[in-house]
Amino acid sequence: MALPPLPSHELRTPLTSIHGFLEVLLRGAANQPDQLQKALKSMYSESARLNKLVHDLLLLAKLDRIPHFELTEGMLDTVILDMEPQLRILAGNRKLSLCLEPNMRCKYDTDKIKQVILNLFQNAVQHTDPEKGHIQISLYGKNNGVQLSVQDNGPGISATHLPHVFDRFYRSDSSRTRKYGGAGLGLSIAKAIVEAHGGTISVVSQEGKGSTFHVWLPG
User: Fold this and answer.
1) How many Cβ atoms sit within 10 Å of the Cβ of residue 99?
2) CA dihedral of 170, 56, 94, 44, whole degrees rounded to 10
C-alpha cells in the first residue's frame, strides 16, 4: 500500500522532541520527579500525535486505493443524534446547536460518514473560542439528496487560505496545530470520504464571520 507523500517535518518534529526528552532523562532528570513527569507527559503527547498521523496516512492510502464503499440506506439524522453525546463532550463549554430535519434518508457507510462529521466538528472546535464558541450542525434535503452543514462563529478563513483548506497537510494557523495536534489531514480525509460517496464538500467563509462547511450526499 503506497502512502501519500509526507512532509519530512511531520515526522521529524515529534521524533526530535521525544529524542530530546530521552536525552534529558538519561542525563539525570529521571531522578527528579518534576522533570520526569514533564518529560513523560511531553513524550506521551508527541507519541499520540505520531499515532494519529500514521492512522490518517493509512486511511488516506486506503481511500486512494479503494475510492468507493459499500453503501447502505439509512437516516443520517439518526447517525448525528447517536453522536450527540460525543460531540457535546468535544465541544466543552462551546454552545452546540442541532437543526436536523427528520427522516433524512440517503446511502452511506456509517463509520466513514461519522468520520466526516467528527473531522468537521473537530475543525470547528479548534477554530472557536472555548467559552464563547458556537457550533451548529444542520441537516436538510437539497437537490434530490441530503445536505449536512457545520457552521461556527470562529475567526473565519481568509481569501488566501480558502482555496487550500482541503489540501493535504495544509494548515492556515500553525499555533493551533501545536495546541491541538494533527497534521492538516482532517479536512482532506473528509473530502476523500465524501467524494467516495458520490457527494460534494465545500466551505463558505469570511474573515471575522466564521465558516460553514457543506456536505451534500445523493439520496
Assistant:
1) 11
2) -110
Catalogue the E-assigned strands of 110-181.
Answer: 134-142, 145-152
Task: For residue 155, give the nearest of 138, 143, 173 by alpha carbon.
Answer: 173
Q: Has this prediction a pTM greater than 0.85?
A: no
How many Cβ atoms from other residues are within 10 Å of residue 164's Cβ? 14
Kindly state the DSSP code that residue 172 receives in the 8-state scheme: S
The x, y and z cell numbers of residue 85, run together, are: 453525546
Closest CA to 116 of 207, 39, 192: 192
Instruction: Answer yes or no: are the C-beta atoms of 138 and 120 closer than 8 Å.
Output: no
Q: Which residues contact 51 (CB under 8 A, 6 or more apart)?
A: none
Phi-psi region of 54 (alpha: psi -120 to 50; beta: other; left: phi over 0): alpha
Q: What is the full per-residue pLDDT of the chain (219 aa) written as tens digits?
A: 554 555 555 667 777 888 787 887 788 777 788 878 888 888 888 888 888 778 888 888 888 887 778 899 999 999 999 999 999 999 999 999 999 999 999 999 999 999 999 999 999 999 999 999 999 999 999 999 999 999 999 999 999 999 999 998 877 664 444 454 556 789 999 999 999 999 999 999 999 999 999 999 998
CA distance 28 to 78: 55
Q: Domains of the chain by range and CATH?
A: 6-64 (1.10.287.130), 72-218 (3.30.565.10)
